[in-house]
Amino acid sequence: MLELRNITKRFGAVLANDHVNIKVKSGTIHAIVGENGAGKSTAMRIAYGFYTADEGEIIVDGQPRRIETPHDAIALGIGMVHQHFMLIEPMTVTENIVLGAEPGGAVALDLTKAAERIRKLSEEFRLAIDPHATIEHLSVGQQQRVELLKALYREAQLLILDEPTAVLAPQEVEELFAILRRMRAQGKTVVIITHKLDEVLAISDEVTVMRDGRVVGELQTSATNAAELARMMVGRDVLLRIEKPQAKPDSTVLSVEHLTVTARDGTQRLKGVSFQVRAAEIVGIAGVEGNGQTELIEALAGLIPHAQMSGRMEYLGRDIAPLDARSRRELGIAHIPEDRHRRGLLLDFDLKENSVLGVHYRPPVAVSLGSVLLDDGAIRKRTERIIEDFDVRPANPDLPARSLSGGNQQKLIIGREFVLQPKLLLVAQPTRGVDIGAIEFIHRKLVRLRDEGCAVLLVSAELEEVTALADRLLIIHDGEIVGEVDPTIATLEEIGLLMTGGKEQ
Ligand SMILES: Nc1ncnc2c1ncn2[C@@H]1O[C@H](COP(=O)(O)OP(=O)(O)OP(=O)(O)O)[C@@H](O)[C@H]1O
Ligand SMILES: [Mg+2]
After folding, report:
1. Residues 335, 301: contact at Cβ < 8 Å?
2. Is 467 near ligand 1, meaning CB less than 6 Å away?
3. Which of 176, 219, 317, 379 is most buried, judged by most C-beta within 10 A?
4. Are 328 and 472 in the same domain?
5. Which residue has a Cα nearest atom 18 of ligand 1?
């Protein structure tokens, strides 16, 4: 169905793809794996016409093709769901899907007909998307299904998915895989980029392994295993499990009592949540996405208007509810947000600027408190330290954040928050889109931060991640904490049951 032949692509000094050869057989599900920055997205963006290769050929259905724009790719039956969605927030599902898709042009659009087709497609693939919903009101998972619908609407025969599961809860992953298998059964071809080796093993027929811009392996999935794939990707053996010493929790750092959050539309997102986090412990929150964990973290970080909340939030014995986000950061509360593009970075700003977000107005970054004069030397030093400590690649402080691969953007954010030496770290989805080598690394850093006395509140949709990292695990469902379990004892089934609304016995 698709062949990339000797594809080479440079971005300035970076060789993102170096004579890449990838063959995707028709009617298969083909996985591409590799470390952050290995060149996976670049290769697939070239196949989709989003970038053009410097050298090499693209063969579609046996024919050499020029694919210079996504329009060319779409015309050849190639669809792509990007790592970061490309939807226009104030517009509806139907408007987004139809945009640029209709040969008749904007004037000839029949939105009612389009909406009807979208509704049918949504039903056929069980995507549960209302064609009339506005994008900004949809969850991340729903937005992804809109991207899927967009490709299906354009009758894609080959669907490229760039880290589709990074944003999904475990059940949603199962649903997505069911959709992909249905597509394969209909003769469609799927390329899936993922960092999760168990997913590769579960869903793919064949797998291509990339490292440093090159293809280093082509395997039949049935003839490989996670350890072999990991070794090929990283070039060394990788610890696939977290090893951590027993926590020695100290005094209470964060105390939350009867916290409620009411959304603008009047729905209660948090319904009287109470818990505590002590110094030197990691408290995990497990839950299906959309059950209040985002609101919980944002309420604590100071990102939700005071008027939408009630209850108490005490940090080191002090009521922080009236404080804004900046004041909370000054007190030692750091925040690693779940949505790195919306909350974590300014994509068009360079790494230096992104490294000092939130501390840009005070020394050592500003020459004096509130000054607009910044100390370039200090900023560069801080950035270089983050880059080095967190292995951000490429290690160039002057690059715009946009040009970093997804996993490297995440490492930059984590590094920025860690250098604050927080007393309380609010962290959501810390390893989303991060490769297995870097996951191991980030997990170690989180445990070390804990052992240095930081209180850590961790939200993750990765059940294995929260159970492995957390010293205590709270389960959230429908805005309420429905149970607390000892993660060393509780089984994934027990936790899963609580997450989906079964009450603790
Ligand atoms: N638009 C761009 N401008 C400059 N450099 C880029 C651009 N896009 C990618 N790169 C660089 O090319 C290399 C490959 O990036 P790519 O996004 O393809 O990696 P990836 O394998 O998809 O990584 P990840 O798993 O983190 O998503 C990286 O070094 C990245 O920084
Ligand atoms: Mg990528």
Report:
1. yes
2. no
3. 176
4. yes
5. 39
Contacts of 446 (CB under 8 A, 6+ apart): 282, 425, 427, 430, 456, 458, 469
DSSP 233: H
- CATH of residue 438: 3.40.50.300
Residue type, 379: I
Cα–Cα dist 120/37, whole Å: 38
Residue in the structure block whose two tokens are 């818990």: 275
Q: Which amino acid is at 100?
A: G
CA distances for 487 relative to 284, 321, 498, angstroms: 9, 30, 13
Q: Is 14 in the pocket of ligand 1 (CB under 6 A)?
A: yes
259-273 per-residue burial string, b: 16 or more CB within 10 A, e: under 16 = bbbbeeeeeebbeeb
**Kind plus residue range of the DSSP H or E element containing 329:** helix 325-330
Does 409 map to a domain? no
Is the domain of 297 the same as that of 208?
A: no
Q: Is 431 in the pocket of ligand 1 (CB under 6 A)?
A: no
d(CA 479, CA 385): 39
142 lines ligand 1 (CB under 6 A): no
In a domain, 92, yes or no: yes
Which atom of ligand 1 is found nearest the CA of 393?
29
Name the one residue in this structure whose structure tokens are 């440079």. 10
Ligand 1: residue whose CA is nearest its atom 7: 403
Q: How high is the mean pLDDT in each 10-residue block of the chain (505 residues)? A: 98 95 98 95 96 97 95 95 82 88 57 92 88 89 88 93 82 86 92 94 97 96 94 81 88 98 92 98 91 95 94 97 95 93 91 92 86 89 96 94 91 95 96 87 94 96 88 95 93 84 59
* Cβ of 437 less than 6 Å from ligand 1: no
For ligand 1, say whether the CB of 400 is within 6 Å of any of its atoms: no
11: β partners = 14
How far, in Å, from the CA of 433 to the mean position of ligand 2? Answer: 8
Neighbour count for residue 3 (Cβ, 10 Å)? 18
Residues in the chain: 505
Ligand 1 pocket: which of 405, 409, 410, 439 to mutate (most atoms <8 Å of CB)? 405
Identity of the amino acid at 31: A
Domain count, the chain: 2
